[in-house]
Amino acid sequence: MATRAAQKCQSMEEVRIEIDRIDQALVDLICERFAYVDRAWQLKKSPADARVPWRIQQVIDKVKARAAENDLPPELVEALWRQMIGWFIQYEEEKLRTTEPKE
């Protein structure tokens, strides 16, 4: 689907079409990210391995810098990523708990 610059939109219908296009692309990218998260838990050994504070901070720092480069509020990106990362960590912890070898 063709894209239209925000400033070129002449109606709310055109704005909504572009927002819907972007939402679809975001979902597709989150699906792609999820595939890597799904693989990550398989490579970890225990639920404790799911939460890696230095890595979380590294990711947050990178996305905030990218946001700032693009005149997007870094606080917005940080809030979104912390929510997403938190969900993914819970997902990994649950997967790791349910697949731990029984002794």
From TrEMBL:
GO terms for molecular function: chorismate mutase activity. It holds the Pfam family CM_2. Keywords: Isomerase. Its EC number is 5.4.99.5. The keyword Lipid metabolism does not apply. It is an enzyme of class 5 (isomerase). GO terms for biological process: chorismate metabolic process; salicylic acid biosynthetic process. Residues 6-96 form the Chorismate mutase domain. This is chorismate mutase. The lineage of its organism: Bacteria, Pseudomonadati, Pseudomonadota, Alphaproteobacteria, Hyphomicrobiales.
